[in-house]
Amino acid sequence: MFRDGWKSPFRRDAESPSPTGVARETWTLPGDGGPRFFVGHRRAPPSIIEDLAHQRTRCPLAPQARCPCYKVSLRGVIFCEIQSVHIFITNYLDVMSSWCFWSQPTWAELKRRYADRVEFDWKIALMDGEGLPKSRAQEEWYYRRSGLMNRSPFMLRSDSYEPVLREYLAPNLVAEAARDLGIKDDSVRLALSNSILREGSKAIRDVDVAAEIGARAGGIVKAKLLERAQSPEIEKRIRQSTVDWQALKVTQRPTFLIDTEIGDRAIFSGVIRLEPIAATLDSMIDDAVAYAAHAAHFGAPPAQ
Question: Which of 181, 211, 233, 249 is deepest in the core (most CB within 10 A)?
Fold first, then answer.
């Protein structure tokens, strides 16, 4: 049935990046005792056949050793086969935002679950006077509320509070600049957030201090990071991404913007719970796959 060396597009459910998944249907692919076949791009390991043989000697109802079966995701099969499906999620945030700080576990879990199906990116959406606390006491009140809402065993610190600042530019410049120096993950911006919100660092005002923290976290040269952070291009970029965020007509950070190539869009502004975002992603992925499957069978729509 399958030639040796053939690579199946099927994946075992256990290896799906999403426990909630988009897959609700399953197929079972039995071996026929002939050449071994691949599941999830892996050769069926001999240990499985040996284990089944051992079970068979102890229980006649155990599966036949020569017929191992694998449970696979039907929609996972379709998604792997249709390479033209593109899903994008953008996280608009401010490095100094406490609610963005609390959203990180959800962001990390989304990236883990959907790494092979969704393209992830984050952009700066600078907080302005309307989003900043008016006093240190007010900031601490917000920190207590958000900490309790997230069942946190620690409270964020307000040491870095600066009533004269109209925006928190320095840490956001450094986080953005690190991307130009090859740091594409979340490490630098998370190090800055942690340093400011948990350790009380003054990096909120001093770009030199922020660069030192970022350079240490990213393993890059501080002088290069500082130079890049102070370049006009970086500030222009984060101000443009802030304008893009404002154009969405939302008020809360983080804002998760999900887009698909079939024109579907979902926006979560201030929502940081995993479940509603994951459920929406599953639905949007399913619809995008259905469009691609239809196109594979019938092509593009008639011109008129």
Answer: 211
3-state SS assignment for residue 121? strand
The answer to whether the beta carbons of residues 98 and 146 sit under 8 Å apart is yes
Residue 53 to residue 91: CA distance in whole angstroms = 50
Q: Where are the domains of the chain?
A: 13-81, 87-278
User: Residue 219 has what DSSP assignment?
Assistant: T
| Rg (the chain; Cα; Å) | 25
Question: Could you tell me which residues come within 8 angstroms of residue 289 by beta carbon, excluding any fewer than 6 positions away?
Answer: 22, 75, 78, 79, 82, 85
Q: What fold characterizes domain 87-278?
A: Glutaredoxin (3.40.30)
User: CB–CB of 15/42 below 8 Å?
Assistant: no
Residue 76 is which amino acid?
G
Q: How far apart are CA 170 and CA 172, in angstroms?
A: 5
Phi, psi of 126 (to 5 degrees): -60, 135
Q: Let me know: does 177 contact 207? Beta carbons within 8 Å.
A: no
- Mean pLDDT, the chain cut into blocks of 10 residues (304 residues total): 42 40 39 38 45 48 43 49 75 96 96 92 92 89 94 92 87 97 94 93 86 95 97 98 98 96 95 96 91 86 87
Tell me, what's the pLDDT at 86?
84
302 Ramachandran zone, left/alpha/beta (phi>0; psi -120 to 50): beta
* Alpha-carbon distances, residue 86 vs 104, 140, 267, 291, 297 (angstroms): 23, 41, 17, 11, 19
Residue 157, token pair as written in the block: 């610190």
The pLDDT score that the predictor gives to residue 295 is 84
